[in-house]
Amino acid sequence: MTGRLPDPMAAPALSAVFALVPQGAPSEMRLAALEAAARALLGQVRWGETPQEGDWEAFEEEGTRWLFREGRLVSLSSGGPGRSRSLLLSDPERRSFTVTWTATGEWVAGPPGEEAWARLASGQVVPEAEVLRHLEEGLDRLEDKLSAAEEASLPQTIPSDPTVPPCSWDIAEGLDELGEAGGGGGAGTAGLSAGSLTGLVAGAARVVGQVAASQAAARPKKPEPGGPSAREVPPAAAEATCPRCGHTSVPGARFCKDCGAPLRVALCSECQAALPAGARFCKDCGRPVRPGPASSPGC
What we know:
This protein is an alpha+beta fold. Among the domains are: 2-115, no CATH class; 171-201, no CATH class; 240-299, no CATH class. Helices cover 30% and strands 18% of the residues. It is built from five helices and 14 strands. A hairpin with a 6-residue loop joins strand 6 and strand 7 (97-101).
């Protein structure tokens, strides 16, 4: 759904929104007031009307509303039960700001690319970097515990594989013989010469090759590429609906046959997120959308 907001209505409301952007660590009340002001600004949008010259353009998709004009952007998602919501403010002449609320009440807020703050479940507000540091330490401790538990569960002896052919060469006896041949006078590798060690490695390599060959022969063969099972029937192209006028066009059309609006979905040049036709800013990272082949004029 698209709409418009005349600039004389948007300018004072936008100034009121940016006036509430916190400096430093934000408070719960300040973020609530900021969200309410942004919601009031988007509530003035005249949905269903075509933007005129000088208007702010508005767009809504999947519960998220965007309002943008000449590099300035206000984006607000409504969230819902069990879902997170977010607010993004971007203006080249003002201090940009973003905040994301979780479904359980925690949030992370701050200027994009600068120091951000996080509210924990306990209600404490701390720098986001501290939260990430504690999270990394916790993950490291968890990884150590998992590694220790895995080592404790390993058997002392490795069970034999029935698919591996029997090997007449005993590694332990080979080590003893090579040790004696090297003048070590005992079992193990302490007395191995360079030539004996080379022979031991070569023998082990032959055993590994036999095991790999037997396991490869036991595996079921995969169908060759391009075979009957690999062929797939391409899905039929669906009719495209114009986001501006709502008329449908023939499958594969790039522009609306009634109003000329682009029909294809664009991709964000930064995060590669799929965007609706006509979007000027990315709904995930807030970056301006550069015109691509799908939205460029001409054939």
